[in-house]
Amino acid sequence: MKRREIKFLVTVDCDLRTDDVALRQESLDVLLGVFAQTGVSGHATWFLNENDFAITKNHESFLKEALRRGDSLGLHDHVDPFSDDYDKAILRDFCRRSKESVEAWLAANGAPRTIALHRNGCLAQHENIYDVLRELGYPVLSDVYPEHTFPNHKQNLSFDNRHIPVGIPPYRHDAANWQDYRSTAGCFLHIPVMYMFVREWDYGLVDRWLAAFERDGVEDPVLVWLFHPYEIMNKAKTEISPENLAAMRAIIKGMAERYGATFASMDEIVRQVGA
Fold first, then answer.
1. What phi, psi does 46 have (nearest 5°)?
2. C-alpha span between 203 and 226 (Å, rounded)
3. pTM for this one?
4. Using CA atoms, how far apart are residues 43 and 132, in angstroms rounded to an integer?
């Protein structure tokens, strides 16, 4: 099979993880700068953690620049405080609050739009969460992380995707069958994650995903990378780390040079698959 263009999605979960608002802003500005230098601008996807960090209030200049470039915006709700039972009423109120806040800011700044993309904090997966996201009108998700399982910040199980193989393309599902990666129908388009974090980047994993795509006849490979602004800070989160920043740059450069990958946003992929 002749492999078509590899799309590499640089997706940033905006967990800022410091009380220093100026450092938060610096981390976002540094990422904007790197993306401008590496060809990612206009193709990045920012999942905004509005409930925890009030991004529309504290980081308006970042949002305006991301919009100007044509980057994608989604919401990143950390629902782990509610993971003892994932009460739907509490989840609905929490997730509605962030959506309404960001959409109101967009409308007030001349960019009226509905936020369509959602990624749960800690990649949390539960039928009640997805039922609430369906009710709120989210059509696109990105939580499934094949071959991995993680606890959340409360040490409850966030997800278990160990039985899901690498190399799965975007697929459709409903609230109760998010792990059915062969599903072709449902209210959600799910764009799975290939790798999370900046540390220990593994080109062998990239090769495994591409081999699986080729084996299964996937003509439009989509590789999703997830990381956070705090990962370019030092361990104490007091300043930007040159070493961590260099590692992030190397990943972007390496994917383009080794695989000829081109950058794409979530919105671009949604248009590509016709959802």
1. -110, 120
2. 15
3. 0.97
4. 28
